[in-house]
Amino acid sequence: MAPRAVWKGYLKVSEIICPVALHTAASTSERIAFHTLNRATGNRIRRQFVDEASGKPVEADDQIKGYEIAPGDYVEIDPEEIAAAQPDSDKTLAVEAFVRLDDVDNVYFDRPYYLTPGDRAALEAFVLIRDGMRGSGAAAIARAVLFRKMRSVLIRPDAEGLVATTLSFDYAIRPAREAFDPIPKLKIEGEMLQLAKHIIDTKRGTFEPAAFQDRYEAALAELVKAKLEGRTFVAPQPRKAAKVVDLMAALRESAGVAKPAAKVAKPAAKSDSTKPVTARSGKPARGKAAVPHRKAS
Question: Where along the chain is composition biased (Basic residues) (predicted)?
Fold first, then answer.
């Protein structure tokens, strides 16, 4: 049974208009949720808005929005004024352009939805749009008022339907340079880079969402189950954080490559001295044999 539609309207491509329905693709309804209780009575606690100066509760009819222009100084705006500023919805996903999917940076991706025909009469037009996009390898950029806000939406074919992903506006995305500029320029070459590529190649696979388990949700479920059964909950043991002491050694270990064997020094010529000598300098060794010098790769 198809999930209940969260929005119904029309998909408009030039002069082609197709009734469509939008369904939530990602949901948090399966997550474990807790209520806040009064520890003494076991009753649920109800939130209240209170005046921060007097501490007295403020009812909904007495509440108003405010935009802070200076500390403690606000421009007051009525809820009706905010509602009036919201764009009118004509219930239409109007396609403005077709683009290559790879041209859209997925950092702009917001929330995914499934887009389906709005009714049986819309099936032919829906399939025409879907197969036309699939045949041309195109994705559509559309605009619509969804959930009282103007939104840009990326639409692409998927199996028998379409996937519509709302996009964040440019002003909402922080420039990457803010995070990346402090990273110093460093170039890795030689054996290190080859080992890294080898490790990546040996771990190639396909994305299987079911293979990734939410360990936190699983632990919460076990905690609730233990409480219901009256037994002690045993918390999962945290993973030990590994310390990388030698990056090259870690790479070799990950790649299953043995460390190159050290070159064995030839026996030194006989000497009148009874003390052992090092292979490189001929000077008397102190305690342990010197480590052979390894050439940089």
Answer: 283-297
* 3-state secondary structure at position 82: helix
Residue 197: domain span:
187-205+212-256
What is the rounded distance in angstroms from the CA atom of residue 272 to the CA atom of residue 256? 46
E strands, the chain, are 7-13, 16-24, 65-70, 73-77, 92-99, 109-117, 139-146, 149-158, 161-167
- Assess whether 151 and 102 both reside in one domain: yes
Residue 134 CA to residue 136 CA, distance in Å, equals 6
CA separation (Å) from 143 to 75, 137, 154?
31, 20, 9
Is 66 domain-assigned? Answer: no
Tokens of 198: 């080898």
Among candidates 14, 19, 25, 22, which has minimal Cα distance to 120? Answer: 19
Could you tell me if 164 and 56 are in contact, meaning their C-beta atoms sit under 8 angstroms apart?
Answer: no
Residues of the chain with pLDDT under 70: 1-2, 241-245, 257-297
CA–CA gap between residue 18 and residue 128 (Å, rounded): 10
> What confidence score (pLDDT) does residue 2 get?
62
CA 45/CA 39 separation, integer angstroms: 10
Coil, strand or helix at 154: strand
Give the per-residue pLDDT at 69.
92
Residues 113 and 220 in one domain: no
CATH number at residue 111: 2.40.290.10
Output the pLDDT for position 12.
Answer: 93
What is the signed CA dihedral for 102, 106, 109, 113, rounded to 10 degrees? 50
pTM of the model: 0.69
